[in-house]
Amino acid sequence: MRRPRTGSYAQVLFRGEPIDAFVPDELPPLPPIDFEQLLQPLIDAGAALARLDEAASLLSGHDQILYSFIRREAALSSQIEGSQSSFEDLLRYELDQAQGAPIDDVREVSNYVRALEYGIERLDQGAEIDERLVCELHRQILASSRGADKEPGQIRSRMNWIGGPHPAIAAFVPPPPDQVQPALASLLDFINAPDPETPVLARIGMAHLQFETIHPFLDGNGRVGRLLIALSLHQSRLLHAPIFHPSLAFKQRRADYYYFLDYVRQEGDWEAWLTFFIHGLHDAADEALDMVRRISALFGADRDRIVAEIARPASALAVHAMLSHRPLGTVLSIADQANIASPTAATALRQLAQLGIAAEITGRRRDRIFAYAEYLDILSEGAEPL
Q1: Which of 220, 64, 238, 70 shows the shortest CA–CA distance to 156?
Q2: Total domains in the fold of the chain
Q3: Which helix (H) or strand (E) element contains residue 116?
Q4: One domain, residues 175 and 209
Q5: pTM of the model
Q6: Interval 109-141: pLDDT, tens
Q7: Share of residues in the chain with pLDDT > 70 (%)
Q8: Cα distance between residue 312 and residue 62, in whole Å
């Protein structure tokens, strides 16, 4: 449904030149969204998320896969912003073995991981998605990275814009600084106010577009905005664990993603955006469900092989469990995590390598890294830089 433009323009001076900055109207939009035409996509996406949640809860080693799934989402979200860091680069970085990786990019992805884990912890402690939490997430995302000079954790006090070297020729200019905090406060009220009349996924989709329109920070808005999708799904209990990759759909259809963000601002067609957004969540849930099922089958089959083919399998099973949690490791890191001696871990890794479960991936004689090869291959699907 087309409506009038979903906001107004405020004129602001930038280096003496008048610039039109877009100030969005408050949510919910008027006239109200026609949820009737969104009903089937909402039902289908909700069912897909429920299937994923159930499958994850039944997965043996459910807690183990959280480490990898959180990091996969972090890599995907950062790649939308142009990061050239892969999922494997991040795992190597966390082992202090990231030679050859784009370190600035990897550091940004690592920051995203910390912010997501922190956000989940705070929500589980009863926090709301409020200004304080959003600023804390932003501070963690930009910490010690290329955005460290862009006022981490602070609502912006300067103009910013998207595309182009100057706001006069930018693709989009968000609200002027004096209107950012009121717009963000209104959005956060919308996020936290109970509203049984509005479907949860639609509320999350509206909030995401509004956040990106407000653009409350000098840098890192896209990453914070996508992080809030994952946290909102967790807060709503549609997913009890962050084993989901909402950024995958946006990465795969990045041009459409940016098109619809702007289309709603100019044409007021919230239904078009929400259809795109909900279908994206549905596709990402189906992808994650397929991944969970394949990982579950892999873990089970490999445990059975270890028990059947290794005479004394206890140490090999312990190392397999560690690689199921972190698919890359050194002998020392695996021994430490499995609480076994280093020679025992080395022997177990040789046994797993003989079975084709583990593989040494550096070719070095020192500082060698072992990978749970097939598990890593599954996790890396679609998680390579653009």
Answers
A1: 220
A2: 2
A3: helix 103-124
A4: yes
A5: 0.91
A6: 889 899 999 999 999 999 999 999 999 999 999
A7: 96
A8: 26
